[in-house]
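Minutes, project check-in
Item: structure for the 574-residue chain
Input as provided by the requester:
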Amino acid sequence: MKKLLSVLLAVAMVAGFCVPGIAAETENGITVWDNSGDDGWSGANIILGDDADAWPFSVADGDVQGEVAFEPEADASYWLVFNITSRGAKGFRVRWSTDNTGGSYTGGDAAVVNDHVKAADEVATVIPAYFQDTIDDGETNTYFVNFVMDGSEEADGLIGNIAIRGQQGNNDFTINWIEVLDADGESLVTYGDVEDYDLPAGDADDDDDDDDDDDDTSTPDGVYVWDKEADGWAGANIILGSDDGEWPFSVGSGSDDVGEDPVSFEVEKDATYKLYFNITSSGAAGFRVRWISQNDNGSYTGGDAAVVNDHNKRSFETATVIPAYFQNTIADGQTKTYAVEFTMDGEEEADGCIGNIAIRGQSGSNDFTVNWVLITDADGKALTKWGDVPANVALDVPAFWAFDGIVEAAGLGLVPVDLQSAFTADMTRGEFAALAVKLIETYLGEAIEESDPFADTDDETAAKLGALGIVGGDQNGNYNPDRILNRQDAMVLGFNVLDYLGLELDAADPDFDDADDIPDWAADAIGALQAAGIVQGSDGNFNPEGKYDRQSGILTMLNFWNALPEIEEDDAEE
């Protein structure tokens, strides 16, 4: 097993944990893969440069297979149009990539990859763009992206080569044709037999949501937000009524500080509502959602005060009552989205659990900034917006199939606080290191003292794994913490963690339907984990280059935890 570990490490170090696919076809600087043929995955890369050190910070010399699609100009507007037939994929992402492989997305891309969701008939105005759930099996759609590259981007930001990928790493689709045009509609580069189409009306200089007057996110009546620096304290109030003698018993008559039209939305009895709010901490450790009778920083109802600390939730859990307490769920500098789903049944009495909704810092802390607030009805229709609300606000909530496992893993102490959000975001090597160190230290009951820093990062968890021999750097001694992992990368790293902890796994070949797509450097690890029942595929496939997100990483660590033997007390003392 130790020999197997050393072989895996050696190969992975050379590969830098990034394994390019074999291009099915390259045309005019556009490379397209199709897994219905000889390729192991589907997608496309549009190469914009051949120098990783020069704007647009794309492919390094020698890695572009000889051709650049077109040379972008700063502040110029471009159209990307692509036509796809689904063989099972539900949607597609357009992303920024640093090379001509199936991974290596930029750090800037990874941070916001799911933020800009569009319908099939909408024009995306930024990259990354997410055409989520926009196509059915057997359908063919044409998608449009109208974007500007303003020249101010930095390396590893929202810049690079343009990548077209399937939703959630799905490869069941065929790209029929691609065209890139300038702002005047003149074709710059094509792939395939481009069919006739009409460019929709659109302007990449427009805000992503400004095409709908109903989506105005300017400060609405009835929502009041305070900022510590400007106002002396931080928080938000959402006003639900203007008469303390009438249900919902909120702001009393004569309150001058609620404006001429103070009510945020009209509450209906027995109706269910969803509150989402996004906050950046500058020191606050958590937040409460409370009932307040006036539009001030106090005046909480008696019913609220009696149970204000009774309903604790983790950051990724949806609270189901108010007051709700997201206690110790955020660290200084982090930004998170919280969710509350509540019903007002009409039975509440004045001064009970009723009134206006208040968002406050834990233990009275004012060290935070409210970025945006959204309330929807039970069907998701927006009733109130404040701030720049993104198109999809539920991305901090795990998928239904991952929720119970994430709650269990968090309860065991296996999930660092800064990974308890954005569960559908792609996982990076740095994030995997944080999870792995948390697993090792929790299992052994002691901190890892060793440290061997890498040349490109001061991340302590990566340095700890490096010192233990679990991970290695590339040929330049770099760990590449922002590099996106796929499934095969993660399994090799995970296998090394288990080997370090002394779990002996029997050698076995992978027994998936797509085992031939698994590279030799990852096959031993994946085969051993599959044989032990630790790793499973989907519909008989492993999908080695498929998406590996945060929730997948957390569930992997939970599976590892359950596979590890309990440490005897004598062993722990040693």
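Outcome recorded: The chain is about 20% helix and 20% strand.
No further action items on this chain.
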